[in-house]
Structures are given as structure tokens and as C-alpha cells.
Amino acid sequence: MRRSYRFLLRPTSKQAAALVACLEDHRALYNAALEHRRTAYAKAGVSVRYGDQSAELKHIRADDPGGQGRWSFSSQQATLRRLDRAFRAFFDRVKAGRTPGFPRFKGPGRFDSVEWPKDGDGCRWDSQPEHPTATYVRLQGVGHVRVHQHRPIRGRVKTISAKREGSCWYVVLSCDDVPAEPLPATGATAGIDMGVASLVTTSDGAHLANPRHLATTSGRLAEAQRVLDRKKRGSKRRRKAVARVAALHGKVRRQRLDHAHKAALVLVRGYDVIVHEDLRIRNMTRSASGTIDQPGRNVAAKSGLNRSILDAGWGVFLTVLAYKAESAGRELIAVNPAGTSRTCSRCGHGAKENRVSQAVFRCQGCGHAAHADVNAATNVLRAGLALRQAAEAA
């Protein structure tokens, strides 16, 4: 299996300046390649491909030895592939009839990472193995940068990326052939219902809390945003205010990810089979504002619900749960969530009147009463086990 590891970099002041220059030159290369494609098609009707632009890299580097020529050839190829993927995704959206979203030029705040596709080609993980206490990564044009390696890595390092978040730099390792770490069997199965009051409710009645990290930080975020709005564009004080807002959002993101890891670990340790709803989160959090001709209804309430769903981090949690289940040898099943919250888990009667409130379920057919999320989780589990049985019989 493949796994990614992320570690904090501790560059010197000269190395930090080199990392900034590396990121800026790769951004300039991306934008120049995008402009090349746009101009060639607009003036001559010619579609420029990745192979054409990669072949020109040799001449670009020779003409600019103190700029583009400083960096790894393979990392620049990775930047051109990044643009090529953006164009392929654009054409896929056009064919599917969705809103296309043509690839855009990257501003200074929209390009935050550089990738080296192969360990040993312009980069080297653990470049000073003889060092007794520290780990280093060597990046061409930057040097040996110290890494805060807080845990061991497993598998074979395939790609290395340097990523900037605010004022911090991170190294991201993508490793292949990572061995699985199966956990002992428990013999237990569970269905889980995703929610806002509780992040997860299991079919046996357990509730995993939703900390609401964004709501907790909303006061400080609002104040930081007000300070930002008063600053003059282009000023040094505005840049500091932007960094403050970004730091608060970064903290919320890290808190949400940390809680997702802990909640997923509880489930993976406790159950052999976990059934969850196959949620379409993007559709669920779509704006209700509508258009000028047909304005939406209950826009404020829908906006608050969307904010609560996104603050809960369902997508992050399900992603973390999937790879932890794979590593632990657990079985994860996704089922269609339609009707699970309004169907009685005892008699099967389905009606919207069964859901009395957010927390109370009372069947209008048989009178069965239960916590609404526990009832939904039980239905999710039953649907997942039916899918599993059908797959085994096929």
C-alpha cells in the first residue's frame, strides 16, 4: 500500500530564501507554460502538449542558468505535468457537461508546493545518514535541510515534495510498499451515521463528539478579518494581517485532522466491519442562494447548516478512516444513505414523520422509539451487511 508522511522542515535563513526562490521560479514556469498554450491555440489553433513543453526545458535552463537552471530538471517536468493534469481535468469537465473552469494563472498565494518525482533525482531523503541525532533532506539548489522527523517512515520513498504553509515549510514523502499492520480481530461490526451534533454515532449507541473547531475559533477569526479589512492593500501591515488569518485557519485545519485521526482509530480498533454512508458532501453543502430571477429559500439556515457540515469535516474523517481500515485489515463498506434517517430499524416503515426532531425517532407504524442517529446507524449497518452478503453470493 502507499502512504504519505509529512514532516516539518527547519531551514536556515539562506535555505528558506532558496526555498522561496525555488517556489517562485516553478510558479513562473507554470504560468509561462500556461501562457504558451493559450497563445498557441488563440493565434495558430495549435494545441501544445506536455511533451512539447518538456522538450523546451533544456533551452530554457541554458538561457537562464542563474534562475531556472538552478533547479532539478525532473522537478520542473513535474510542474509541467501539473499543468497538463489541469488541462486534462478541464477537458473532462467539458465532456461531462459540467462547469469547465479553464486553468488559471497562479498568483503568489496560489502555488505552494514543488515536487521531485523520484528520490535520488534532484533530491535525497536522509541525505546525511551518518548524523547521530538529526535527519536531513537534500534538495537541489537548496542544500541539506534539517527535518523534524517525529516518527519513523515505512516502505520505499518514491516522491518528495516541499510545501509552504504560512511561514512554515514541510517535506511530504510518498512511500510505496508500506507494509500493512493488521489488528487482532474483534468479531464486532458497526454501522455509523455522520452528523453535526455528534461527528459519528454507531449502531450500538456510541457517540463520538464533534468539537466544532471553526465555531470555537470564529471570534478570533472575525476579529482578525476585521483587522485585515482595515489595512491598505500592498502594505506590510496587510501582509501580516493576512498571515494572521491564514495561521488561524491552519490551526483549525490541523485540529480537525487530528480529531479525525483519533476518532477513526477508535472505530478501527473496535470493529472488524465498519459500514458508513456514501455521502455526496459537495452536493449536500451546495448554496441555496439561487439566482436573481429565482432566489432561494431559507438561505441563512442553509448557509449555517453548510458551515456546520464543513466544520465537522466529514470528508476528512472518511478519508482517514479508509486508509486506517486498509492498514489495519478492517473491512469498510459504503452504502447509499437514502431513507436511512426516516426508516424504522425495527419494522421497516419509512416516513418523514418518523423523524420527530434532530435527536428523536418515533415510528408512526409500530411505535418504536430510539435516538434518531442510532436508528439511522442501524439501518446503515443492515444495508451494508446485505451488500456484503450479496457480493459473497455472487
Automatic annotation (TrEMBL):
InterPro entries: Cas12f1-like_TNB (IPR010095), RNA-guided_DNA_endo/Transpos (IPR051399), Transposase (IPR001959), Transposase_put_HTH (IPR021027). The keyword Nuclease applies. Residues 181-287 form the Probable transposase IS891/IS1136/IS1341 domain. It holds the Pfam family OrfB_IS605. The keyword Metal-binding applies. In the N-terminal section; belongs to the transposase 2 family. This is RNA-guided endonuclease InsQ/TnpB family protein.
